[in-house]
Amino acid sequence: MDIPNIDIQLKTLPNQPGVYQYYDKEGKIIYVGKAKNLKKRVSSYFNKTHDSGKTRVLVSKIVDIKHIVVDTETDALLLENNLIKKYQPRYNVLLKDDKSYPWICIKNERFPRVFSTRRVIKDGSEYFGPYTSGKTVYTLLDLIKGLYSLRTCNYNLSEEKVDAGKYKVCLEYHLGNCKGPCEGLETELEYNENIKAIRELLKGNFKDSLQQFKHQMKQFAENLQFEEAQKIKEKVEVLQNYQSKSTIVNPRISNVDVFSIMSDESYGYINFLQISYGSIIRSHTLEIKKKLEESDQELLELAITEIRQRFNSNSKEIYVPFSVNLGEAIKVTVPKLGDKKHILDLSLRNAKYYRMERFKQIKIVDPDRHANRIMAQMKIDLRLSEEPRHIECFDNSNIQGTNPVAACVVFKDGKPSKKDYRHFNIKTVVGPDDFASMEEVVYRRYKRLVQEEQPLPQLIIIDGGKGQLSSALKSLDDLGLRNEIAIIGIAKRLEELFYPDDPIPLYLDKKSETLKVIQFLRNEAHRFGIEHHRNRRSKGALNTELESIEGIGEKTIVELLKHFKSVRRISNAERKDLEAVVGVSKASKIYNHYHQK
């Protein structure tokens, strides 16, 4: 798939919280950022001249933008941290400032120390980071210090020196913060077990540490060592509390691939989320063109195989919206509720947004293709014999039986054709009779089109249920157009679509584009009709009393209203003020009318 240019990508970004990723021409992530509103935040990079030269360089290198939509701004912050740790994009470090960034070091030595540093030395030590926030480093180190007893001294604790008794325990030992490896009071094996747990914790894997502490707590409790058990319990709570703040997925969900699919008549859109240690570390959406009307299951099975190969995924479990056949080596889970269902819904939302953005991009780049797709889908959804390129929708408007009017709005290729909109004042119906009014306006509309040899629509939509539809059908029968034009009625309450001679209504998916076009038509007809009705009613209410004055016509009333702004001011005006606007004769009639009353 060709990458749309940056301008088009910016126009189609969602106004949702999420994380954005910038890619260079080689397809490498060069920057990851979070946003409360993706469209506004990403657009800001391209809508102004930046003071920072580094930012200008970054913007010049961007050729593609991808994003992951999440629920909240907090989720975006956490996901941003996960992705920066995973990919370490170049400009996430360069664009902050010129200083070096903090790392957490596990020193390459006997009884390794764990500390923060801004210098990475290639001496065999392990470094975790870089962290974009020093606060994150201090929080992690405090967490580690509270969970594990580690030495803080910089002694060379070689086996020979410890056995020779060269060192003595310090205050940290007496405070309970260190177990005294300098005097051989803690074995290297015990110490390294803690280092192993710390290493996993820094990678984001809290599961092993939690299990270890819970096991220790249980043992202390069984041995009636309740004070020790309570200390371990507090550590478990600290670890769980930190973990809940550092992930947007349940930490028990680890090493899992999540797949969801959205499809239409031509394409399938499959979103992939990779979960590691309770955090999202990758999101990718694949677009597949249908060739043989493949089912969603067939498309999803094909996409899962392709995506897992592309990203070298070895996950033994996948979450999907429905059962798929991938062999016995992979566990397939179809979540129904809870955190697993939540992450599947998040994947589906990203697939939907990707599909919407593709449609918007196509609409900008190739509007004809967009219209063709909509028309083809409407033909299928509404069971029509031809594409509804020309649609007309009718709506009646009257309030308490006054000023009954009707409106006809016209859509061509799925878009409003406002020059073809028409108003109708009801002429033959007395009182509020929607059925008779609908029969009149449909008859008048298509009698005129036939007489003038104008093109007829492929579809008529009647705003109302079976009664209004029957009335419109009667007019088409009278004109001999019953089989020339497709006609349906839409009932407001449940969005039911009624067809002639079919008692069972059709229900479209609430999110389908066909229903959205029909709702747009119906709402336009309602707006257009109400607007005309209000104009007539307002004109009648304002002008009724003025028009009742003999010798005062419409032009005079308009002049008066322009000057005095309201009927009440006209009624209270002095004779000389009226004379200045409409002359002595008419002013006298108006003044006498109101003052005699």
Automatic annotation (TrEMBL):
Gene3D superfamilies tied to this protein: 5' to 3' exonuclease, C-terminal subdomain, GIY-YIG endonuclease, UvrC, RNAse H endonuclease domain
SUPFAM superfamilies recorded: C-terminal UvrC-binding domain of UvrB, GIY-YIG endonuclease, RuvA domain 2-like
Keyword Cytoplasm carried by entry: yes
TM region(s), chain numbering: none
Keyword DNA damage: yes
Stretches assigned to the UvrC family homology region profile domain: 262-476
A GO BP entry: nucleotide-excision repair
Residues in UVR domain copies: 207-242
GO MF: DNA binding; excinuclease ABC activity
Superkingdom of origin organism: Bacteria
Ranges of residues in domain GIY-YIG: 15-93
Subcellular location: Cytoplasm
Role noted for this protein: The UvrABC repair system catalyzes the recognition and processing of DNA lesions. UvrC both incises the 5' and 3' sides of the lesion. The N-terminal half is responsible for the 3' incision and the C-terminal half is responsible for the 5' incision.
Complexes and interactors: Interacts with UvrB in an incision complex.
Name recorded for this polypeptide: UvrABC system protein C
Organism in which the protein naturally occurs: Pseudotamlana haliotis
